[in-house]
Amino acid sequence: MSGVWVFDKNGVARLITNPTRESFEQKEPKQPGTATAPGARPRVLVYLPSNHVIRSYAELEQRLTELGWTRYCNSDHPDLIQFHRSDTSSHLISLPKNFANFKHFHFYDIVLKNRSFFQVRDPTMEYQA
Fold this sequence. Notes:
- The chain is of the alpha+beta class.
- It is about 15% helix and about 25% strand.
- The protein has helices at about 55-65, 105-115; strands at about 5, 15, 45, 50-55, 70, 80-85, 90-95, 120.
- A hairpin with a 7-residue loop joins β5 (about 70) and β6.
- The longest helix has 10 residues, at about 55-65.
- The termini are far apart.
- Residues about 25-35 have low confidence and may be disordered.
């Protein structure tokens, strides 16, 4: 079976055997910080203690600082903003300089390193606090 597997809203996969070029073209994100892969659903990063959607670097940096993360100055990668836990820790979060360029894997990197405090959600779904 050759082609591309696409998942619908219910998580059901279907095979597209002859995908067109248009199905692979990058589209502009509808909201800042959303996944833009073809067929990908937009995602948002939620700070769980307040059930608040993170929409900017200012908000994200504030929350990460509260959790003990500090901004890491790395002149080798000027296109990235990095945060580290401490000088003795190997934990590092690397993010694109432009918040609108966040992808799903950036969100999940933050979630994995702060499991009790962040969650990735579908913005179209209703959640109870």
